């Protein structure tokens, strides 16, 4: 409608790039969301979209789950913000320690970026070293300790994409970027640079790239051998793939783990969990030579904590993990079939409720394989899918327990239609 177009234009003017850099220069593709329910989003004109992006991943119960509405309404009655310990915060820490294999102690923050930032800061404080190893293409948040090596960048772009037009953050020389799924490169670097590296940070499943057998275990061994803190960034995989996240499924235990997104089903909550012998250095009464400063006005925010309890209750009681795993299998099989029928070469990857398609005939093991896949094609298809009522979930997405097979089938039909339109 004209009213919606006017709102989008106002946003273009007032909110450069939109809330999460989503405003594109392509006019006519944007809309303004008014509400969500179950697997759907509605725009201000009342048009309905199937949502496989679920708020960038957090909403594993879907939108406005009745149990979440009830819990948060009750939570608001108890007051909004205290900045103190509460019984519910302590109970949540207990639950995370119970579920996440490597968790002995917990610190809460509000966003995934804070969780990775403070995990890295703690590793530096404890080891007294400054360098960090990360993997090419991994995203650990929007702070300068984890600059993004942009996997969607052109092949000839500089590998360290700081996100700010050629300006490298001051710490960039301390960030070593190696290829995901290459444990030999890690061992070689650590062997050649003794005493230099504080931490190795890895997404156990880097987006939807999955580890080759033995990769994560080899990282664990290299870190032990060279005194490096192993950090799993489970902001995407934590709580979502299993109560204990990818470390439970893969059987490899990191020293520290960053959790975020799905742990609170849509409210801003994140956590750093890990071994007590490391985590104790967040305590400001600890040894000042190894102290890591961690703070945050909204840490352990009450509504977010309540939302986390509700998310865990519902997903466990309703056998959500089994459903998400089955629906994930179904979705990946459907996508592989749809692309094959359309004569499109694609690799469909992911685990559990994560799915991602890469348009290449080679196996996709690292960011260079991603860069070699056909991305231009993706964008056109993305726009067509929007026309078909699919919200931004191309070529990757997340499933929630609000989704069922009929929604996945509708997604497949929309892709077939969109491909037909492009041909
Ligand atoms: N780590 C990973 C693996 C992520 O995917 C993200 C967010 N996309 C972050 C960290 C940062 O989380 P946030 O956006 O909540 O700061």
UniProtKB/TrEMBL annotation:
InterPro entries this protein is in? Aminotrans_3, Aminotrans_3_PPA_site, PyrdxlP-dep_Trfase, PyrdxlP-dep_Trfase_major, PyrdxlP-dep_Trfase_small
* Gene Ontology molecular function: any one: transaminase activity
Q: Please name the SUPFAM superfamilies in this protein's record.
A: PLP-dependent transferases (SSF53383)
This protein's superkingdom? Bacteria
Gene3D superfamilies according to UniProt = Aspartate Aminotransferase, domain 1, Type I PLP-dependent aspartate aminotransferase-like (Major domain)
Which cofactor is essential here?
Answer: pyridoxal 5'-phosphate
Alphabetical keyword list: Aminotransferase, Pyridoxal phosphate, Transferase
What Pfam family is a match for this entry?
A: Aminotran_3
Family listed: Belongs to the class-III pyridoxal-phosphate-dependent aminotransferase family.
What is the protein named? Aspartate aminotransferase family protein
